[in-house]
Every structure is written in structure tokens, then in C-alpha cells.
Amino acid sequence: MNREELAKALKSYRTPFEEEQLFVQQFIELTDDPLAFHRDRKEGHFTASAWIVNKTRTHALLTHHRKLNRWLQLGGHADGNENLLEVAMNEAREESGLISLKLVDRGIFDIDKHIIPANAKDPQHFHYDVRFLIEAAMDEPLTISEESKDLAWVKYETIPDVVKANDSILRMLEKTSKSEVVC
Length: 183
Description:
Elements: H1 3-12, H2 18-21, H3 24-30, E1 44-53, E2 59-65, E3 70-72, E4 74-77, H4 84-96, E5 102-103, E6 110-116, E7 125-135, E8 148-155, H5 159-163, H6 167-178
Parallel strand pairs: 1-7
Antiparallel strand pairs: 1-4, 2-3, 2-8, 5-7, 6-7
Helix pairs in contact: 1-3
């Protein structure tokens, strides 16, 4: 999925969730910015994430992010790579050690615009996160990366307690709770 394909996918992206509808146009406009996929764009840039679920849709893999000290989906910066699907898959492998990741659908699963607090290297800025739905086996060994404090397969019913008021994760949970399991 290159920049043009991303713009096309965003233009056709439909969601029943009002919070996503509010920033679809901002994502589309960002695809025209030459720095959209680079951290150098200080006001905000694209990132990509993997919402990793087990085949039976009872658990999701979450990481306890070291810097943000929150449980989140796996993902990261594009660092110039305009293929956000590739970024999401690479980040999922790097942050989990999982090898047998299966993309459920090549289409965009979810989008979220969220603020990242200022740190020693960067001012406060936005991440325009494009997410993809991925399946993995729960019995495959996990490897915790330097970016994480922990990794865990979390039961769907306990995710709200673990992520607290993270509406974007709760939205992805709702999307996969309603989706059909394909065997």
C-alpha cells in the first residue's frame, strides 16, 4: 500500500464511529504532505499499528509501552516507509517476536489521531495512526522488545479494565467483538 493507495483507501474508508469520521479528511490531506511519513514533520505524522487477535477472537495482544506507561496495540513510526501495512507488520514482529502473523484484510481496520506528549527529543505532536487487523497463534512464544515493559494476550472482557479510558482500543475491541470468525 503506497501513498496513492493509502489516499484511495482513506477516501473509501467508512466507519460507524463518529470519532473516526471526524478525522478521516485530515488523514487524506496528510497524504499530500511530502514529510507525512517522517518524524521530521513535528506537528504530526503517520504511524501504523497492528491490532493482533487470536483466531477465535477471545484475546488481543497488548504491549505495556515503556515510554507512555500504558497498555496499547503494537505499532510504530513509518520512518519514511510509505507502505503502512508493511510498517504495521514489521512493528508487530519486532515488538512481539511473533513470526506467524496473518493479515486478516488488506484494508484499513481503524484509524486514530492522538496526541503524543513532549519528551526530551520531540515537542508534543500528533500521530495519525493507520491500523490493520492481524491474527496470531497464542501458543507462539513472545519476545518483549526494549520499547515494552511487558506483552500479554488479554481476554476481550478484561481489556476495558487494562486500557482504562483508551477509546481507540475500546473501538477496535468493539469492531473485532462484532466481526465474524473465519475458520
